[in-house]
Amino acid sequence: MTPGLHMDAQTLPKxxxxxxxxxxxxxDVQSNPLVMLEExxxxxxxxxxxxxxxxxxxxxxxxxxSILEQLRPSSLTGIDSSAEMxxxxxxxxxxxxxxxxxxxxxxxxxxxSKDFVLVSFMLSYLSDLSSFARECARVIRPGxxxxxxxxxxxxxxxxxWKRNFHYYEAEVALETHAWSLDxxxxxxxxxxxxxxxxxxxxxxxxxxxxxxxxxKLSELNELEMVPAIYILQLQKQVLSSSFSxxxxxxxxxxxxxxxxxxxxxxxxxxSIKDDRIASIGSSTRVAGLTFDLSGYSLLPGLINAHxxxxxxxxxxxxxxxxxxxxxxxxxxxxxIHAIHSDMIQRYQSVSKSTRLWWGAIxxxxxxxxxxxxxxxFYPEFSTSDFPVxxxxxxxxxxxxxxxxxxVNTFRATPHGTPFVLHAAEGVxxxxxxxxxxxxxxxxxxxxxxxxxxxxxxANQVAILNERGASLIVCPTSNKFLFGAxxxxxxxxxVRRSALGSDASITAEGDLLDEIRFAQLEIGLDxxxxxxxxxxxxxxxxxxxxxxxxxVESGLAxxxxxxxxxxxxxxxxxxxTFDQIELVLLAGRVQMASPTIYTQLSDEIRSGMxxxxxxxxxxxLRAPLRRLFDSAESVLGQGTxxxxxxxxxxxxxx
Length: 653
What we know:
The protein is α/β, with parallel strands linked by helices.
């Protein structure tokens, strides 16, 4: 429920009716600049809600419910303490939207039943914030979001703002509690809800008409640089390993030739217990399955530092190789939506959940076990059967161009947590100037992770290094869009760098294609490339548990490749997807070649289905029949491709 903005209120004597029932009569006809300000800043923050379960706490007359319905959630529920508010809301929303009259401080939903909870202008009415935060954490699924907005507490205190509304000729005062932003953040984070975004917007030009009609333009001028509201988005933490026991077994990888780093192999037995590497070198005699890895080489699971998983089945979209390249990514984005709008709409008609799965499978097939997905963290990522691990703890923004709230989002990202954004993505002066714009706003420090950086120069890289910032490059995307990739001299001068595949909508293929391009076209040495997909992204993204290495007590994220190589880095740069025959994620078999599959127990095979990729058969722990049906019902039978390779369901094999 949303407050009015009235400074000198006279309290109306209490009536028998709920005060919010009175407000319901006039709520929708009274203009409110706070509502307008909130709405224009929250809309860009809303995650994709298609197929999600959504709850609006303190839904009032249904202002946000009618907006949320348009985003096609699987279920939408509004609760409010006022029967009159809900009566007005029912007129605005569809019959499928559930409305309940409840005490908003006591959420009645089941545990882990919601993906998104909205709390709009309601928090300051609560007397027990700790209990409410605990309730929010209880009903939100891992990876889900709570989005809170309210009048800015500091500004309200400094300027004497009260919660009141006009009821015909009278003004009605509302009882509130002054929670500071620090208190709110501390209380919610104590319940495992981490801040992903905090913005504190001030009134601007869009609100001018409301102030003018109220005869308060002078007040608007005073408030133009003062935060009027805050918008706080929190995300429920995801455990680093959330796998069920299905498909897991203690393993011994005997006769293993395992990477100890880019240059050296070790030899012996790698024992895995639960999700960890229990020992390396000698057997611990775990009670489980034994794999003989004679003739194989064991590498750490690869880390893809940049991807957009929802585009995993999209074709490449852009200009032909003989056409003039784009100057910057904005030019590309505008052009493809003008020229390829029908194709984009067609692929987007495939459910986002299905597309996210295919994006994960694209990575799994090339030996990637951990992905940094540069977009919202969707509930699928925290399920026990998702094919890869998706990084959850980082701040992010798209870019300067597409995110007006970038500065606030960056400042809300805690020190020690990476902040990822696209920058200097192009070859023109505008792209080059982005780094200076970021720097002038204080956005280049040890948190900063720039993606692409094609337009950076040596001086800017020197600043990047001095501040401890990082760079992630996606060279085949840059070559496709701009006809150029970052030079070897510039890239090797960056102290903290990693490699990403980018989305299939611009990339040549998968992370292995980026590795080959980095060696053959850019000229990087094998040792540098090895680090850029293992230890370096683990450092940049602050990953724990031995990510990117094969070490005792580390998570058992491993890939076994066919063949014997002189060194691990030599193996990696020559690798093709068909040579990857086993992928373990936290000790669980996620992918197996037919040769490996025959060695698996029935328990481990449970949940694995066959797929043919460019004529090569693989068994994946994924609901492939459902995923093929979901995608091909929209795109057509036999049309599905991943990384430019034809894929088909091989269930009949």
